[in-house]
Each structure stands twice: as structure tokens, then as C-alpha cells.
Design goal:
Largest sheet: 2 strands, antiparallel
Strand order of the largest sheet: 1-2
Order of helices and strands: EEEEHEEHHH
Helix content: 25-40%
Radius of gyration: 21 Å
Mean pLDDT: 90
Number of domains: 2
Oligomer: single chain
Shape: elongated
Strand content: 15-25%
Low-confidence stretches: none
Distance between the termini: 34 Å
């Protein structure tokens, strides 16, 4: 699949764990591979699982005794109440057009703060996948630093970028919460 703004969906192996682990001088009898699939708007869980199953069938052509299961991982988190919640680790792709009223107001707020916003997209996942992708709450991504420094080892931001982003957040809030007509 391809999207005119977002390009191709991304499929990356992010983890390979053999069993037994660690395998000190033991030939593993199985391994678990984790794929990270960055989805495009409209792609479904079933389509993603089918894509990975096709890859496995391709490998099985060379290794006929290969046995594999494909599923969406489940994540767990402990809440401040002590309650543990579980959920599938599935984050749908999303995109709001630049012409969307919320996006236009957010851009106006950034400009009113002296910033020159550039409409683009992130190649990494954010919590927007829930807010926009599942709950359909209008969402934009904005923050300090550069994309290539996000979600990596030694991630950092410069103080000036942080201060500028604070001005941008305030501008977005003022614009989005104003009672003025769409700008």
C-alpha cells in the first residue's frame, strides 16, 4: 500500500529472541520475532497480519518444516490505582488534511507565536494513533527538536527549542480554544 502524503507503510523487525534464552552453547528450538508495522490510514489489522503471513509463506518455501504463529501483541500497563490493564498493541494510521478546521487553527496559533510551521508527517508512532486513529479526535503533531532525534538512543532537545515549543503550545491552545471563527 502507498499513500500520497505518507508514502509506503513501514514494516521493521524490532526484536528477535531465541529460546532458550540466553542460548549459551544451546541450539535454539524456536524464536520469537517482533515486527513493527507503521500503518497507513484505512489499513486494517487483518491486512497487516496477512502481509506478515505472506512473508512467512515465502520463508516456508525454503524451510518446509517452519511452524509460525502471527498475532498482534498485547501490552500491559499498571495504572496509578494499582489496576493492570491489557490491550492489543495496534495503532491505526491517521491523517487530518491541512484544510481541516482544527489543523488550520493549530497552524494559526503557531504563526501567532512567531513560528513558521511546516505541514508534514512523522515517520514514528505517537499517542495520536489512539486519539486520531481510534477515537477520531482531531489531532496534530508538534514538538521541539528534529524527527531523527526522536525515539532513538541518546534522544535530546536543545533548551532554545524547548522554549520555542512552549510558545507554540500556548499559541495552539489560544487559537484552538478561541471563540473566533475558523482562521
Amino acid at each position: 500500500h502507498s499513500h500520497p502524503v505518507l508514502g509506503e507503510g513501514i514494516l521493521e523487525v524490532t526484536d528477535i529472541i531465541s529460546s532458550p534464552y540466553p542460548g549459551a552453547s544451546v541450539i535454539p528450538d524456536k524464536c520469537r520475532v517482533t515486527f513493527d508495522r507503521r500503518l497507513l490510514p484505512g489499513e486494517t489489522k487483518e491486512e497487516v497480519l496477512a502481509q506478515i503471513r505472506r512473508i512467512i509463506r515465502g520463508v516456508a518455501a525454503f524451510k518446509p518444516d517452519l511452524k509460525a504463529e502471527v498475532f498482534v501483541a498485547e501490552g500491559t500497563a499498571k495504572c496509578y490505582t494499582g489496576e493492570t490493564i491489557k490491550a492489543e498493541r495496534f495503532a491505526p494510521g491517521w491523517l487530518f488534511e491541512e484544510s481541516h478546521p482544527f489543523v488550520r487553527k493549530a497552524l494559526a496559533g503557531l504563526r501567532s507565536s512567531g513560528l513558521a510551521p511546516r505541514v508534514s508527517h512523522y515517520s514514528f508512532c505517537t499517542n495520536g494513533s489512539y486519539y486520531a486513529g481510534k477515537a477520531r479526535i482531531p489531532t496534530v503533531g508538534f514538538g521541539p527538536s528534529r524527527e531523527e532525534l526522536a525515539h532513538v538512543a541518546d534522544e535530546y532537545i536543545e533548551i532554545d527549542q524547548l522554549l520555542s515549543a512552549c510558545e507554540g503550545y500556548a499559541g495552539i491552545a489560544r487559537s484552538v480554544l478561541s471563540r473566533e471563527a475558523d482562521q
